[in-house]
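1st attempt posting a full record on here, be nice pls
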Amino acid sequence: MKKLLLILLCLPFIGFGQVDKIIFSSGDTIIGKVIEVGVNEITYQHKGETTNNVSKKRELAKVIYSSGRIETFQGLGILESKIAIEENERLYLKQKEENKKNRIQKREDRIIYFRELNESTKNYFVIRTGISMADIRDGDDWPTFKEDNSLGLSVALDAIFSITNRIDLDASIRFSQKNIKTVINNFMFFSFHSDNYANLNKINFIDISPKLKYRIINRMHISFGPYIGYALNGKRELLINESEKHPRDGFVYGTNEPTLTVPYDSSVDFNYTEYFNSHKIKRFDYGFNIGIDYILTKKILISSEYSLGLSNLYSVTTPNPDSVLAEMDYSQKTSVFYLTIGYILN
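the predicted structure (as C-alpha cells):
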C-alpha cells in the first residue's frame, strides 16, 4: 500500500535518469528500457538485460521515460482505484483500532469508577425524602369507601454497613404516614345509617427497619427485611359512602364529596368510648419491607419500597355480646408504597 502511495505521489517528481520506469496497473514497477509501443502491446527490456519482454498495454498504468515524459495507459484508473480502496481500508482499520482502544479505555474507566464508587459506599449514611401512598387492607365487613388511598410524606435516615462485596446491612429509621379507618356508632347522629360513615385516621408513624441489601448489578440493590412502627399522632376525617344516601327529616346524609373534615374533633383518639363501645387504635405496627434502589451518582440514590403491615391496628369491644359490632370483622392492616430520593453521606 505504501508502495502504491509512493508511486502516485512521487513518480511525477522522479529525475531524468538513463532508464525508463514502467508501472503496471497492479502497482508493480519495472526499471528498464521501452523498446516499442505498439497498438496493443509494449516491448521492453529489464535494466542490464537484452531480452525483449512483451506486455499488453491494458495492463499498464503509466510509463515514465528517461527524458521525463510520462505516458499514461488504460490501467491507470485501475491503479488509482486500487490505491483508493487500500487507503479506505487503511483508514477503516485505523478507525477500528481507535474504536477498540476507546472501548477498552471506557471499560477501564468504568471499572475504576465503580471501584471508587464501591469503596466510597462501603459504609455510609443516606438521607431520603419523598412521597408515600398509604392504603388499607380491610376486614371482611367494611363498606366500600373511596378514600382509602392517600399521599403522604416520607423521610428516612439509613445507615449502610458492608458485609460482603454484594451484601450490605441497612439499618433505617423512617417517618411515614399511614391510614386507619374507625367505625362511627354515635347514637345521636348516625344510629340509623352508621354503615355509611367512618373516620379515616391519618397517623404519623416512626418505623425502624433492619434490612439486607443485595447488589444485583454495580449500582442496583434489592432489599428485604422486617420493620416495627410506633404511632405518634394523627388527624382524622369523615368518610361518607356515596353509594348510599339517605334523606331524613329533610337532611341528606351524603354529599358529592366522599371525604369531609370532621368538625367536632380533628385529632386522633387512640382509645375512646362511643355509645358504650370501646374503640382502640393500636400504636404498634409490624410487618416487612421489600425494595429496590439505584445509585445515580456518587451522592444521589433513588429508592422505591413496599411496606406490608401484618398487625391488626384496630379493635372494637362491646359489653353486649349480641351487638352487631361484636360479630363483624373491622380489622385494619396497613399497606404503603414509598418513592424517595436520597443524598449519600460518607
